[in-house]
Specification:
Sortase, Chain: A; alpha+beta; two-stranded antiparallel sheet; globular
Length: 255
């Protein structure tokens, strides 16, 4: 009886903590949405590594407008802010932070209070002002769909059938980027897909080929060693599987 009561109390405590973390994250997110200004920007921008084939899907996505984001308020709330990310038909609409390691924002919210929901953060090895070969952004897969909880949408056939979904918008303090998705898959936890830089072009070519071969979505986006890659990563389940999305930079513009 004592063991049963202890188990029930422990379960209730875990549940209460989850709801507290959830409500705090929701509050922070609402405050962010109210305090910053985001709008579409039809600046033509600079095409990045455009293919010679003018019929390529690249040119369809290159016509999509950027998003302007006001960062002054975000920086006043958290100096670790390095960007803002959006992904269509998901709940991913968050400021991106970066710490000195990849552990801090697993257990801290945007306001730096302890919270098991964590926040959306960039790999500490990446440099946002000069994009690396592969820039990785992480987030917990929360059951309520917050953080990267809705990244699972990319695995559904309905999401994949909509060609307008295959872009990721990333605004930084200095630039606006649009990335075109070229690979979506699930895999057991590993370090290879989050490699930030490659020592030579051959290694990057092999990496790109491997990432593209893993793709399960009905797309065939061309990639080559001159492309800058953005990777989104989150947990799929408690057995260590990951949901991964790779996209290549196709358009950029300075503020």
């Amino acid at each position: 009886m004592t063991l049963c009561l202890s188990g029930i109390l422990l379960s209730l405590l875990i549940l209460l903590n989850w709801f507290y973390d959830h409500s705090k994250i929701q509050q922070i997110h609402k405050e962010i949405d109210k305090s910053i200004y985001i709008d579409k920007d039809f600046d033509q921008g600079e095409l990045v590594n455009p293919p010679k084939n003018k019929k390529s899907e690249y040119y369809y996505y290159a016509k999509i407008p950027f998003y302007n984001v006001s960062f002054s308020i975000l920086l006043s709330k958290n100096i670790d802010t390095v960007g803002f990310i959006r992904l269509r038909n998901t709940k991913i609409h968050y400021p991106v932070v970066q710490a000195m390691n990849n552990e801090y924002y697993l257990t801290h919210a945007f306001d730096k209070t302890e919270n098991q929901a964590g926040w959306i953060f960039m790999d500490y090895r990446n440099h946002i002002d000069s994009l690396d070969d592969n820039t990785t952004i992480y987030g917990h897969a929360r059951m309520d769909g917050s953080m990267f909880g809705s990244l699972k949408n990319v695995l559904s056939s309905s999401w994949q059938k909509n060609r307008d979904n295959y872009v990721i918008f990333l605004s930084t303090l200095k630039e606006k980027f649009i990335f075109q998705i070229f690979s979506i898959y699930t895999i057991k936890s590993e370090g290879y897909y989050i490699t930030p830089n490659f020592s030579n072009s051959k290694k990057k070519e092999i990496w790109l080929s491997t990432m593209k071969e893993r793709n399960i979505a009905p797309i065939d986006t061309e990639v080559n060693i001159n492309d800058k890659i953005l990777t989104l990563s989150t947990c799929q389940n408690n057995q260590g599987k990951r949901i991964v999305v790779h996209a290549k930079l196709i358009k950029r513009s300075n503020y």
